[in-house]
Amino acid sequence: MFLRSLKNFFNVRRSRTKKRERSMAKEEKIEEIRQRARKNFSLGYNCAECVTQAVFALVDTGLPAALQKCATGFGGGIGLFGDTCGALTGCVMAVSAVHGRAGLPEGDDPQDVAKKSRQQLYGKPGVYRIFNQIPNRFREKFHHTQCRELTRKWQSDWLCRDHALFCREVITDAAGIAADLILSDKNELAAKAFGSNVENLQD
To answer: Residue 112 and residue 134: Cα distance in Å, rounded?
Structure first.
């Protein structure tokens, strides 16, 4: 009885140690991706490219790195239009590379396929629950998701140092959000409650 209790004690302790090690490894990887994105900005990548390049360089997405070309147009809120922040869209693209869908569910009946597709998106678990976290977490930190609102005070001096330093922080944090979601369990993420959303969906 004593030996069994002792064995259970060490098994629990070993399990906790492994969990702690995994947690530390995850935090280190997140920080590595954050710092890579931060450095990318000083190298000349735009906001969206900074995040996607960091993820494609440091995470095995199974996709060709050349796909990061798709991020270029999102810089400056889509070609300097000032819409959704490029770092935020880069974050969405990076997370999509890992947790996104590669196609529709299989099936011969179009109605059944459409039903399964809706379940994949809206259900619990459902992938919209993963991606809904991104703008909600971003807005919680920066209060806005649109480039023109985030950068309003620098629009008459766009290339100034203060603007660059601010965007570098936004990029770093967006890369951190991407890394955290990418390195987390997909099933757990897909079962989380919705945050703010246009359909007013609740848990």
So the answer is: 30
